[in-house]
Design brief:
Shape: rod-shaped
Radius of gyration: 37 Å
Number of domains: 2
Strand order of the largest sheet: 2-1-3-4
Number of strands: 6
Structural class: alpha+beta
Number of helices: 4
Mean pLDDT: 77
C-alpha cells in the first residue's frame, strides 16, 4: 500500500508502508504528523496507525508524541540486540589529568596556593593535549580549562603577595636603620656616652 504524509503543510509521498514506519521510527516523520492512504476517510496522526502494510487500517500504534510535538518517536524504537551492529552512544570518558587539574586548582584557591597551583597548570596543559589527541574519546576540556584558570590566578596572586611581603620587610628594614641612625644622632647631641 502506498502512503502519503503531510510535512509543514505540504503533502509528501507516496511511500511504502515499511518506508513510512521507518521514517516514523527514525524521527523524520513525527508521530503527530498526518498520514493517509487510499481507503481512509481522513488524514490521521501517524501514532494512530497500527499497521502500515495490510489492506485494513488498524488504529493506535502506541507511538505517542510527547507534549510539545517532539520529532523523536516515543515508541517503536529498535532496542539493541546482542551481537547486532547497534552501538549505544555514550558520553566520552573523563580525562584523569583534567580532573586532577581542576581539583589542584580548587585546593590552591582554598589555601595551598603555590603548592598546588603550579601542578594544576601542568596537569591542565597535559589534559588539554591528551583530549585533543583522543579525537572525541575523552572529555573533560572544561575541567582542564577550569584547573588552568584557577592555577594561573592563584600563581599570579601568590607572586603579588610575595612581592608585597618582600617590599614590606625591606621597607621596615630601611625605616629601622633610619630610626637607629636618628636615635644615635640625638644621643650624641645630648652628650650621653654610648654604652650607658
Amino acid at each position: 500500500m502506498e502512503w502519503y504524509y503531510a510535512k509543514k503543510g505540504k503533502r509528501e509521498g507516496p511511500v511504502s508502508g515499511a518506508a513510512l514506519k521507518s521514517m516514523i521510527v527514525s524521527g523524520e516523520i513525527a508521530s503527530t504528523d498526518l498520514v493517509w492512504r487510499e481507503g481512509m476517510a481522513d488524514w490521521k496522526p501517524a501514532a494512530a496507525i497500527n499497521d502500515f502494510e495490510s489492506a485494513g487500517v488498524v488504529e493506535s500504534a502506541g507511538i505517542v508524541a510527547p507534549p510539545g510535538g517532539s520529532q523523536i518517536p516515543q515508541g517503536g524504537v529498535p532496542q539493541p540486540v546482542a551481537g547486532s551492529a547497534y552501538v549505544r552512544a555514550s558520553a566520552p570518558a573523563l580525562n584523569g589529568m583534567a580532573i586532577a587539574s581542576m581539583v589542584l586548582g580548587i585546593i590552591g584557591v582554598l589555601g595551598a596556593a603555590i603548592l598546588t597551583s603550579v601542578p594544576a597548570i601542568i596537569c591542565g596543559h597535559i589534559a588539554r593535549r591528551q583530549i585533543r589527541n583522543a579525537e572525541g574519546r575523552e572529555g573533560g576540556e572544561g575541567m582542564a580549562l577550569a584547573g588552568l584558570i584557577l592555577g594561573y590566578v592563584v600563581t599570579v596572586l601568590s607572586a603579588l603577595v610575595l612581592v608585597f611581603i618582600i617590599a614590606l620587610v625591606a621597607g621596615f628594614g630601611i625605616l629601622g636603620l633610619e630610626y637607629v641612625e636618628t636615635l644615635g644622632q640625638r644621643i650624641m647631641m645630648l652628650g650621653i656616652p654610648a654604652g650607658q
